[in-house]
Amino acid sequence: MYINTFAETRPAWNPEWKTRFADEYGYDPDAAKALLAEAGYGPDNPAKVTMLARNLPFFAGSLDVADAVAGFWAAIGMEVDTEQVDQAVYRSAYREWEYTNAATINGTSSAHLFGLKMWNASLISTAGFTMSQPTVNVPLRIASAELDADKRNAQLIDIGDTIYDLHMGVPLFWLPPEAVYNPSIISGYTYSGALSGTYSDPDGLKAVME
């Protein structure tokens, strides 16, 4: 996974994201320290963040990943407060916009449009857990209304470029499961490979014709 809701198996994919990933998203402690110093942070004024560690039901290693990311930040001089939170408490709090300067490990299995609207825009989500930009919101509204698949996918690639270049999220892992269906009811299923994609990719279902 190089950008949230996008993968090489999906049509709106830009191969440049893969080739540029190491330079854009690779862990470089010295470069990170330089960026913090440029922003005015250092030993006497450390950048602070709260890592909200949650035990995600679809990813057993979520707490380990949260701990590792917190360690990466601490290693470059950031002051990290790790807070383990129950899923129900977390959901209630973010819907009320109670978290400030906090990060968490999250995941999605959504198709492009739904996932982007939830995680990278403010078109349908009022939850306070994501960065939102007009340069994503406006073209995403246009793409959502586009019926031509080629034109829509081209627009989505442009939107993905914006999200990628602004580092609106840091993709960590991609878990492709298998889907099982009854061939007497479903003749085919173009499946994205996304976890729980059975509820987010119904456009890939082809029913048996009697």
The count of β-strands is: 5
At CATH level 3, the topology of one domain is Rossmann fold
* Helix content percent band: 25-40%
Major sheet attributes: 3 strands, parallel
**What is the CATH C level class of one domain, in words?**
Alpha Beta
Secondary-structure class:
alpha/beta
Strand order of the largest sheet: 2-1-3
CA radius of gyration is 19 Å
**Sequence stretches where pLDDT stays below 50 over 5 or more residues:** none
Shape: globular
- Number of helices in the DSSP assignment: 7
- Average pLDDT taken over every residue: 84
Order of helices and strands: HHEHEHEHHHEE
> How far is the first residue's CA from the last residue's CA?
39 Å
Provide the β-strand percentage band: 5-15%
Please state the second-level CATH architecture of one domain: 3-Layer(aba) Sandwich
Can you describe what's shown?
With 210 residues, the chain is of the alpha/beta class. The chain has a domain at 41-107: Rossmann fold, CATH 3.40.50. It has seven helices and five strands, in the order ααβαβαβαααββ. The chain has helices spanning 16-25, 29-38, 62-75, 87-95, 112-119, 134-144, 149-165; strands at 48-53, 79-84, 102-104, 186-189, 205-207. The strands form two sheets. Strands 2-1-3 form a three-stranded parallel β-sheet, covered by helices on one side. Strand 1, helix 3 (62-75) and strand 2 (79-84) form a beta-alpha-beta unit. Helix 6 packs antiparallel against helix 7 (149-165). The radius of gyration is 19 Å and the shape is globular.
What structural keywords apply?
210 residues, Rossmann fold
